[in-house]
Write a sequence for this structure.
């Protein structure tokens, strides 16, 4: 870096010191608990490089980074896309700001990053990677990735190891990077001791009687295992239960294929080491893939509240920020920022609505049957408006804060503001507490949400009313509203943020009300017309298809069903089918990769949909869709060719879900 570049970046960093400090203070006032964040100023090329590297400054040598860098650069040049920031899940987190951003953009990015860091720090799915370590709060992702980069670079530089073979091995491992068990705590695999040199004579005799393959006899067995095998009516599966962590299975039991010998041989230490590294990285990035909608929506929600509602964007910056936010939320396709932002607002609004309705249903003379007839929701909303003293805080109105409940006011900060130590014109939030800020930004009275309270349907009212405990009664509507907990919505959001991932989040909050109000619908490809068409606007259909896109990272769910298939040490994988068939072309190529990691033939059981050409022609004439037939298939790669054959339904029936279980998604929705 030249001196001029260094001085320029230092100048930008100096200008951002106050926004960084105050954004952290505001985030903490709002109840966020982010990791410490280190901010870096980078130029356009550096930003593209960081995005290609997944947010880190050092990764192992591989062609994929160059491809992603080229893609990111062309996206900026030809489609107008702009990367404002990137932040990684680490403690401390590292965030990179592009030097060409306007001040409004930089402030937006900083508030966005603080919310991301809070999510990293508090969401339990991110904790699966660090749980069980000596210091569970310490992620150390940058250090881990740096170690991996150095180790793989050393293998590539080793004169006794072919560099091309290392890169090919990394490619093989990456073909399975999403085939892990992301719902389990990450554990590094134990070292492989290899086969024992000698087997007890009695045990060897029993193994001979069981008619096992020679390679299986070479594995480590004990008397307990053999006795269990003898007691079974049929063959014992290995593993006993399907194993989703395919990477771990091939790491422990796989071999490399030796072309000269024509069989699988033990992996070299560097090969097993790289498998370990790729698996660790897959588990590290899994939580980010599992929470994309939640995480981006969470960051967008708090960024909007800080920048717009709390005027962290100055008067001369607001239009620039509004344009920035509009572009982010209006991006085409299934936009995780927009969907997540809308869902978090929905969580807040439904919680606040329920809180208000529970109070109103405890008023004498009001029940779920007559509430909408006897309660004026416009008057309720007027009562719920924040007091003027909270809404317009300034140097000349500080005394008015004495009239609001004490729990809303940070009295130490108020005294400092009176002494001129706090600029309340610029940072009015400093004199309020979490509860005071929740009252100031109460969601149900915001212009865009004012109709939400009255949108309650009779069934929901009945559900709330029938399960109310009679622990408090009110004599009037005013008395009931005086008892409303204004932080209920935020409290619920923080609870949800801790425990959910995208699938559970969508499953719980993607309700019929949300889908209807936001005009969601499904579309699919028509075999009859060869075009896409709207298939349904029913809430259940929309929910199923959205969930399909987020479970298992939107990839097919594949598990190991047998490591000794056909008693020949072949690998049998099963595709857990849910109505969406595999891309058979990609499946064939993936089997070739797995063969290199297993060292012996690889098999894959799946279910496909087949439509007869005659049925398609009939469907076209009758203007309806043909009915596909589901059939079992076995794909097999033996090192020379991929074959596919029909199998009886009984052999794949266990793979078929009774209903859509959200385990995969196709690139295009197929009929």
């Amino acid at each position: 870096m030249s001196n001029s570049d260094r001085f320029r970046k230092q100048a930008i960093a100096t200008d951002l010191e106050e926004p960084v400090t105050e954004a952290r203070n505001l985030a903490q006032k709002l109840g966020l608990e982010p990791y410490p964040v280190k901010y870096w100023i980078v130029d356009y090329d550096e930003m593209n490089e960081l995005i290609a590297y997944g947010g880190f400054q050092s990764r192992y040598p591989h062609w994929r980074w160059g491809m992603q860098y080229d893609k990111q650069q062309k996206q900026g040049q030809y489609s107008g896309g702009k990367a404002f920031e990137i932040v990684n899940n680490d403690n401390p987190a590292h965030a990179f700001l592009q030097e060409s951003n306007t001040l409004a953009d930089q402030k937006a990015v900083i508030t966005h990053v603080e919310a991301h860091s809070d999510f990293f720090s508090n969401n339990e799915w991110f904790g699966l990677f660090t749980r069980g370590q000596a210091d569970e709060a310490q992620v150390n992702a940058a250090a881990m990735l740096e170690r991996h980069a150095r180790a793989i670079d050393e293998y590539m530089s080793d004169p006794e190891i072919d560099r091309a073979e290392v890169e090919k091995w990394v490619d093989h491992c990456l073909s399975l990077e999403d085939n892990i068990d992301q719902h389990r705590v990450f554990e590094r695999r134990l070292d492989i001791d290899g086969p024992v040199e000698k087997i007890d004579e009695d045990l060897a005799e029993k193994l001979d009687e069981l008619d096992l393959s020679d390679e299986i006899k070479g594995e480590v067995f004990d008397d307990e295992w053999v006795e269990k095998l003898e007691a079974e009516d049929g063959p014992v599966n290995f593993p006993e239960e399907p194993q989703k962590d395919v990477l771990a299975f091939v790491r422990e039991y796989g071999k490399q294929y030796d072309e000269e010998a024509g069989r699988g041989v033990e992996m070299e230490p560097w090969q097993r080491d790289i498998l370990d590294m790729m698996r660790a990285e897959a588990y590290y990035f899994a939580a980010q893939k599992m929470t994309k909608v939640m995480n981006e929506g969470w960051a967008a929600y708090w960024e909007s509240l800080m920048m717009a509602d709390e005027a962290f964007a100055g008067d001369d910056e607001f239009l620039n920020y509004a344009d920035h936010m509009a572009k982010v939320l209006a991006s085409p396709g299934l936009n995780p920022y927009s969907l997540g932002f809308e869902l978090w607002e929905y969580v807040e609004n439904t919680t606040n609505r329920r809180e208000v309705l529970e109070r109103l249903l405890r008023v004498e003379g009001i029940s779920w049957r007559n509430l909408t007839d006897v309660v004026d929701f416009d008057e309720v909303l007027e009562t719920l408006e924040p007091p003027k003293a909270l809404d317009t805080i300034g140097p000349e109105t500080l005394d008015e804060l004495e009239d609001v409940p004490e729990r809303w006011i940070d009295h130490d900060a108020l005294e400092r503001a009176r002494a001129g130590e706090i600029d309340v014109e610029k940072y009015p939030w400093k004199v309020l507490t979490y509860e005071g800020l929740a009252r100031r930004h109460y969601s149900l009275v915001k212009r865009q949400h004012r109709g939400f309270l009255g949108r309650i349907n009779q069934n929901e009212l009945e559900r709330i009313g029938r399960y109310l405990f009679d622990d408090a009664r009110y004599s009037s509507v005013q008395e009931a509203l005086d008892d409303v907990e204004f932080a209920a919505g935020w409290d619920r959001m923080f609870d949800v943020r801790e425990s959910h991932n995208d699938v559970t989040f969508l499953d719980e909050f993607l309700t019929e009300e949300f889908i209807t109000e936001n005009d969601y619908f499904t579309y699919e490809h028509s075999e009859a017309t060869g075009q896409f068409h709207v298939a349904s606007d029913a809430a259940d259909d929309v929910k199923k298809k959205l969930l399909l896109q987020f479970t298992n990272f939107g990839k097919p769910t594949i598990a190991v069903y047998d490591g000794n298939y056909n008693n020949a040490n072949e690998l049998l994988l099963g595709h857990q089918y849910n109505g969406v068939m595999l891309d058979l072309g990609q499946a064939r190529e993936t089997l070739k990769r797995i063969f290199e990691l297993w060292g012996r033939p690889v098999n894959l059981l799946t279910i496909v949909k087949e439509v007869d050409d005659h049925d398609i022609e009939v469907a076209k004439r009758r203007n309806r869709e043909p009915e596909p037939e589901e059939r079992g298939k076995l794909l097999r790669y033996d090192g020379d060719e991929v074959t596919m054959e029909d199998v009886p339904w009984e052999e794949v029936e266990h793979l078929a879900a009774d209903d859509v279980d959200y385990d995969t998604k196709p690139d295009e929705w197929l009929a």
In short: The chain has a mean pLDDT of 87. The first helix runs from residue 3 to 15.
